[in-house]
Design goal:
Blueprint (H helix, E strand, L loop, with lengths): L19 E8 L4 E7 L5 E10 L9 E2 L5 E6 L2 E6 L5 E5 L4 E8 L5 E8 L5 E8 L7 E2 L7 E2 L4 E2 L5 E6 L2 E6 L5 E3 L7 E7 L5 E7 L8 E8 L2 E2 L3 E2 L8 E9 L5 E8 L4 E7 L6 E8 L5 E6 L2
Antiparallel strand pairs: 1-2, 1-26, 2-3, 4-5, 5-6, 6-7, 8-9, 9-10, 10-11, 10-12, 13-14, 14-15, 15-16, 17-18, 18-19, 19-20, 19-21, 22-23, 23-24, 24-25
Amino acid sequence: MWADTGYKTPVEVGTVSAPCIYVSTFDVQSYRYSAEKYNLEGSKRQQVIDPVQSSWPYFSTPGFSPSGEFMVFGDREGLQMRDMRTNLTSLICDIPGRAVGNVQISPDQGKLAFNGLIADGPVFGDLYVVDARPGATPVNLTNSDGGEILSVPAFSPDGKQIAYTSWGVMYATDLEGARKTEMQKDYSYWTADPIYTRDGLRIIYTAGTGWLYEGGEIFIAAVAEGGADKGVKLTEARQYGLKRAYTPMLSPDGTTLYFLGETYTGLVHLYAMPANGGAFRMVAPCVSATGLDTRLTFIAK
């Protein structure tokens, strides 16, 4: 299944000791991406991917499977999957004229959702889904001819739905793109980075005043037939001296919410709080240079 493509990004090889958090980042100023591994108390275990020179948008922030067995990323060749045990890489698919970004992995690790970005506008594109195997054929779920401004998609716990946002409005779609539901009830916010709770009954997301998380806070809303209820704010970033809070991620048991917070001086820290709201604490300082393209992944084996 796996072949050595010659792409030699340094990665960790061997068994992943869990639980831990992978923080993968693309720095839009230096055009480099990297990934680091932290334990749940915030101590940095090691660099998983050393920063390498990249050329946006042809390299994307890597994502990791929940088992820690493989990572996925986009490069000039298309959508790639790398076996973390052998360090060998395989091409899943390519889309002519599109660059791959924001890859997410289904709970059973059998499907990949990603954004296919048009070459002349790294935030414009369409949402795709594809089987997680070499040579698979991707399915375009939005078919907008590259007219969407997309955030990171998220699979529902049963793997049958994908939540995503386009132009700041939150949607859910099935894996064929045949049924798309508008999830949002409050249009005073620009939403991004939706994730489902472990029971699939609620959705957690970032909401701010613009597409770069201006004034961002973390919200939660109940998923209902035909959409979602109006969200309830979980964070109060300014009370903690933060300019914005964004990029939520739930712990495997669903009780702890992890997210990024940016200070007014531009530092980006990793925070945690109870999933139903309450006080939050800093888990790890300075995890990202910019935070605008940073992925949080729980590795739980």
